[in-house]
Amino acid sequence: MAGVDEDMLELSRIMLIRVEALGEQLADRIYSRIDGYRATPSARDNVRESCVANMTFVFHTLCNDGEADLSPAEATGRQRAVEGIPLAAVMTAYRIGFRYMWESSVAAAREAGIPTESILEASARIFLSQDEFTQAMTGAYREQLTSQIVDREEERSALVEAVLLGRITDNQSLWEAADLLGLPTAGPYVVAAAEIPAIGKLGLPEITSKLAARDIRSAWRLLPDLQVGVVHLRQDATYGVLVEVLRKIATARVGLSPAFTSLAATGEGLRLARLAVTGKPGRDGWVSAFDDAPLAFAAVSAPEVMNRIEESVLGGLRELPAEERAVLSQTFQAWLDAGGSANEAAAAIFCHPNTIRHRLHRIEERTGRSLSRPRDVAELCLAFEISQRLPD
């Protein structure tokens, strides 16, 4: 070991002999001074082992000019992240630890009669180690924390998917799922489905935090074609707030299911939200709600049968340009909303009553139905509802 400072070698030997006792004392000091550690008493043995390991490698550097082995610091960073001890607390522990190592080394050096020059050199090496070890620890801590966040988000996302797709059926498991997702165990809830700009991209960025800021709890999952979520309606006004938030951030179409009271109905809610987002665009911009009107449910109850009904009733309109078909559909809906009054329908869509009457006559001609016969009106109501609800 030619070229090694004998005084430094002696100090290193002294400190390594004492390292077990020093590690125990340092662990006590850390736990007595740092709240983040006191809150995790189960980590006490791990902290003592880390103190001993880090001290051992630092004391070896007192007589070694090579690069320090930073693996104990990296192991400490990963372990503390797993234990949930805040990084700020771990960095405080490192400051306490290295100061304790320095104080102990200086005291031991003076007892052994080691020259001042060697004590200063030892101090410089300890403080250099502090920088290197702290950087290694924080890097490993952040890597581990990132990995944990990704894992938790993947688990949460998978749980949301299981709830949405109806893979969890018994009440106990649903309550546990709601608890893990941070959702109340009792509704009402709605399902929201948003078109995505591209595979892997969010249609509603930061939606969870934006809703949380309005005191609305939700859980979301990104599917290959949609971003879907379960939203809890805390009170009646919550639905309006939800729609308001969605309209502000949506860049593509968003569909909402009717409200339901049990998470067991989430799968049906997803189906109706999908229909709302893939059906014909509504009058209210990007956000379309699937209401709980009987006609709406009838229109989507059996898609193959309903499409045949629509073709049978509205087939005569198919030859018209798409724009004219849309105008006739809007006019019929306005007439229905107005209780059959052409005057009120005209006021609602800003045209002359005679224009309303002309358009209604066109519908009668093209469909072979009369608006004066209740059965024919019922068929037209269902057919137009199907046309609005189901995609082409």
Any overview of this molecule?
- The protein has 392 residues and is an alpha+beta fold.
- It has three domains: 143 residues, Globin-like (Orthogonal Bundle), CATH 1.10.490; 109 residues, Reverse transcriptase/Diguanylate cyclase domain (Alpha-Beta Plaits), CATH 3.30.70.270; 90 residues, Orthogonal Bundle (Arc Repressor Mutant, subunit A), CATH 1.10.10.2840.
- It is 65% helix and 6% strand.
- It has a five-stranded mixed β-sheet with strand order 2-3-1-4-5, sandwiched between helices.
- α11 links the parallel β4 and β5.
- α2 packs across α4, α2 packs across α6 and α5 crosses α7.
- The longest helix is centred in the middle third of the chain and has 49 residues.
- The N and C termini lie far apart (85 Å).
- The model has no long low-confidence stretch (mean pLDDT 81).
